[in-house]
Here is the input.
Amino acid sequence: MEKFIVLGGRALKGEIETRGSKNAATPLLAACLLTEETCEIDNLPLIEDVFRIIEILQSLGAETEWMGERKLRVRAKDIDPEKIDQEKICQLRSSILILGALVARFGNFKFAHPGGCLIGSRPLETHFEALKELGVSIEEKENFYFVRKDWLKVEKNKKIVLREFSVTATENVLLATSLFPGKISLRIAAAEPHVQELCFFLEKMGVKIKDIGSHSLEIEGKEKLDGAKHTVIPDPTESGTLAIAAAATRGKVKIKNFRADHAELVLEKLKEMGVNFSLGEDFLEINPSVRFRPAKIQTLPYPGIPTDLQAPLAVLCTQGEGASLIHDAMYENRFKYLNELEKMGAAVKILNPHEALISGPTPLYGKQIKSFDLRAGATLIIAALMAQGRSEISDIYQVDRGYEKIEERLSALGADIKRVKE
Here is the structure.
């Protein structure tokens, strides 16, 4: 086990580049299973979730080769779902995307329950009900899902309505229908940038998709797909996290490889809170701020405030002059990090599983704290950078799942943060 030791109180200064999007990389890698031809994915973030997905592809029999530091070549010509590493499936939530790709290529296989962050109930009914409309039956027994497909029972022009705006359910339908011999109308589809990137990649492979970026997609699959090349977009969650860290420490940081069009409402919220920043063509520069204002942080499907930035924004709220309301309707356990902030001196009141009040400004003090999930871990790093004194953050594997060498990159900005073995 490893932990981070952080000595807070230093303003971050310098330049840092946003890495590739975790949430775009994993579905793109899953999509490589749809074809026997070679695919190349560039700008992959070197993080644990990406490594685990690659290991799952390899366990199926896919050939993989690194063509450089961040470019991976994949050829899934001779793959066998019976050989899949079920233990790896259990280690991360995004392994659920392998399901959609396997549905497209195979008619009968078993699949373990995906793992991931402990942030509350994340049922798969939306996925299963959508796949059911495609002639897929899924039976749960003996800790596995047993999957069978019969496309002959499905009409060639089919409408599927998702039960909610689910990113991974949308991506699973896109993957599953890519080899479907007909047209699918998908309603209540998620429209996040990483969903759009999967659509663009599938188009390169030969799938026809209309109205990309909307909540209603028209998908026309193809019986055999081509190989394709694609470059992963910059990670908007990492960009936002770095921006908040810079602002919270009252630093001056230039964040390169930044896509403003993927973060319009987040930028408006930072402006509302008093963060001093300027935008360039492909960068965001955070400048020292004098004072912060309270805000209402309400997460919503894209283009709303993403749930993955709810916790980092809440840390900034501890320095706002007044009461801030945090509202996250998606997950009931995503407020665990607030108990850790309270240990550090934050004035927090959890109203219910989905709402909390934060009063400020309050000084934060270094403590022994724990990372409960991926985004909470990054949030507690921000808090430790702001705090007076020494903090110890345990269970940091959660952070490694989504942020590449975060301690090295923050150290380059002047942070005093070290990784040590417990």
Remarks:
- The domain at 22-231 is CATH 3.65.10.10 (UDP-n-acetylglucosamine1-carboxyvinyl-transferase; Chain).
